[in-house]
Design goal:
The chain contains 20 helices and 17 strands. Helices cover 38% and strands 14% of the residues. By secondary structure, it is of the alpha/beta class. The chain starts with a strand and ends in a 10-residue tail after the last strand. The longest helix has 33 residues.
Length: 480
């Protein structure tokens, strides 16, 4: 394999000849500069230099193999250059945010003291901004949680509830509690082991995991992290506009043993997530706080990009999907169960059931896409009132706004079979790794079982709409 010096790589720092270093390997990305989903500047920031630190947390290990022709894999740095680069990285001054995170981790609470959710302050600001961001004014994100506050219980008493059992099934696969890990991108932004923490935590606690198309580990690495070969994994598909590329992705996860396809339909194009978009500017200002900095002019700054950390990942999504074309195409490509993720109204829930989908996820993408889209809990309530037959034709799941075991139970009373959590698991694994995932599941299990006993039910099957009531007033002090 050819070797190169740092000086040789540095000569290739233009759009006409652009090389980058990733984990001491040298790549020619010239032909990819203007095709990068995030725009050319993302690559040009590292042209002729080392892009490892920026690249690794948001790209799976096989991304270069899949997207860059073999002849563009030029070779390696020579040993002297490797040592120079290592010394340079060791001598690099830590940013204020890195120092802040180090201090927060050093003083973080014991996991046993974390009662509700892991501390967001333990995250690097970039990770926090990406995970926590929501669309526009965060109205849907806020209302997703507030919607649960509009539903109150009708507990039944004097019922035998010893031996309460919170287990259920999803597409025929057993789960210890009616909660699954919803597909979430870029887990390695928060922890080096990323999605592997989620997979191992799911195995230890007996719950199910959905894996995002945009995971920061490869689909193979995640499959390899399973506790046993029969641990179920579901795949959240962001369908590429190129049918053959999309089919290739499905065939890959099918060969790895993934058990279902969750077709994402509520995130066709990048949305306006301002917390995430502003993160680089915040970090720049935070780093330079108290110092004299030379600010760019408006002309130098140029047009503001709203892509943020991962907006470019969905730049090639198929925005022409339809019930008439896409579902039959999926049926031809795979025999795996098909679930539609991102149903936001009663009419589409009915259509999904009529075309024979195996399940639907009521979701507005965690309030991260179209602001003012209805909270999933309200959509669930409308389906229960207007088209209860949907629940007999397909499995119904819900994600968005779930914070407590009581939220889970309210959704199940109205007909949801399972409830997905995304951010909560990202925070837990970011702060405490695999142990954080396990701890979060135990908290939810305790709250769900307590709620079941208090409602007078022994099994999930006994939960029904007669146990909840929607009210038009909010409690004096809500959980938010």
């Amino acid at each position: 394999m050819p070797t190169f010096t740092l000086a040789q790589v540095a000569e290739h720092n233009s759009t006409s000849s652009c090389w980058v270093i990733i984990q001491n390997k040298v790549y020619d990305v010239t032909d990819f500069v203007f095709d990068h989903p995030g725009g050319p500047q993302v690559i040009m920031n590292y042209a002729g230099g080392d892009a490892t630190a920026a690249y690794i947390p948001i790209h799976p290990s096989d991304a270069l193999v899949k997207n860059l022709p073999p002849e563009k894999h030029l070779g390696r740095l020579d040993e002297i250059s490797v040592q120079e680069l290592r010394a340079s990285n060791q001598d690099k001054k830590k940013t204020r945010d890195e120092l802040r995170v180090e201090e927060a981790i050093k003083n973080k609470p014991l996991l046993s003291r974390m009662i509700n959710k892991a501390a967001i302050e333990l995250l690097p600001y970039k990770a926090m901004a990406y995970y926590a961001s929501a669309a526009d004014d965060s109205i849907s994100h806020t209302e997703n949680a507030r919607a649960f506050s509009r539903f109150f219980f009708h507990p039944r008493v004097m019922r035998a509830v010893s031996g309460v059992d919170a287990s259920t099934t999803m597409l025929g696969y057993k789960s210890s509690i009616p909660v699954y890990i919803s597909g979430s991108a870029l887990a390695r932004l928060g922890h080096p082991l990323g999605e592997a923490n989620l997979t191992r935590g799911a195995y230890k606690t007996g719950i199910l995991q959905m894996v995002s198309s945009n995971s920061s580990l490869s689909y193979g690495q995640i499959a390899a992290a399973r506790g046993s070969a029969d641990q179920p994994l579901f795949f959240q598909l962001y369908k590429n506009k190129n049918d053959e590329l999309a089919a290739k992705c499905i065939r890959e996860v099918e060969a790895l043993g993934y058990k279902a396809i969750f077709l994402t339909v509520d995130a066709l194009i990048p949305s306006n997530r301002e917390l995430d978009t502003r993160a680089p500017h915040y970090l720049e200002d935070y780093e330079n706080q108290g110092g004299n900095t030379q600010r760019k002019t408006n002309d130098e700054e140029g047009e503001v990009s709203i892509l943020g950390t991962a907006g470019g990942l969905i730049a090639n999504n198929d925005i022409d999907m339809s019930w008439e074309r896409t579902i039959p195409w999926l049926r031809r490509v795979t025999r795996l169960p098909i679930v539609i993720k991102g149903i936001q109204c009663v009419a589409d829930a009915v259509l999904a059931a009529e075309v024979g989908c195996d399940g639907i996820v009521l979701s507005n993408h965690g309030g991260r896409q179209l602001d003012y889209s209805l909270p999933p809990m309200e959509v669930l309530y409308k389906i229960r009132k207007e088209r209860p037959d949907v629940f007999t034709k397909t499995e119904v799941y819900l994600d968005g706004g779930v914070y407590r075991g009581t939220d889970v139970l309210k959704a199940l009373c109205l007909g949801a079979r399972m409830v997905g959590l995304g951010r909560a698991f990202l925070y837990a694994q970011s702060a405490y790794g695999e142990a954080g995932v396990v701890h979060l599941v135990h908290i939810l299990e305790r709250e769900i079982k307590f709620g079941m006993v208090s409602l007078g039910v022994r099994t999930i099957a006994e939960l029904g709409p007669e146990l909840v009531e929607r009210v038009d007033w909010l409690p004096l002090s809500s959980k938010l």
